[in-house]
Design goal:
This is KRAB. By secondary structure, the protein is mainly alpha-helical. Helices cover 61% and strands 10% of the residues. It folds into two domains: 80 residues, Orthogonal Bundle (Helicase, Ruva Protein, domain 3), CATH 1.10.8; 41 residues. It has a two-stranded parallel sheet with strand order 1-2. Strands 3-4 form a two-stranded antiparallel ribbon. A two-stranded antiparallel sheet has the order 5-6. α1 runs parallel beside α3. The chain starts with a helix and ends with a helix.
Length: 156
Amino acid sequence: MADELKTQLTDTFATHGLTLSSEAESYFLEFLENLKEDHQSECIDAVLEILQKQDTSSTDVDHDRCMAAVQEYDADSGTESIKIKKGGIKKFRLSKQYSCEICGKNYSRATRQFYCIPQILSFSFISFLYLLVGLQLLNTFTSLLPGLCLLAFCSL
């Protein structure tokens, strides 16, 4: 998959008369790998369009120029790159469709849910237990309060 994407990227840039530096290519490939497959070619075309709008006579695209174009695409597309480290190792991108960061299930953009219902329910249940414990402690304290007040009054 990565080799096909690299070939597609190189060929697309070559047909438009642009050449990516190795650093720019690796940066752009990392960005593209975090996108869903059906959005990758759209992203390449949009970044190419941004690069061609820039006033520069150079056909070589260095890392800084590529990074600026990718960030402009990311801001204009409305997806706002959100990268999450999953398990401290792998990064994935929430784009157009959002994924649960625990199980990986996809949600449509309209729902904007990041957690599955079971995780939300388990979190709610734990919160409910903490609330019960807190209320029990409050109840215990309020039942002891008259005795503590009497003890304090008697010690005066």
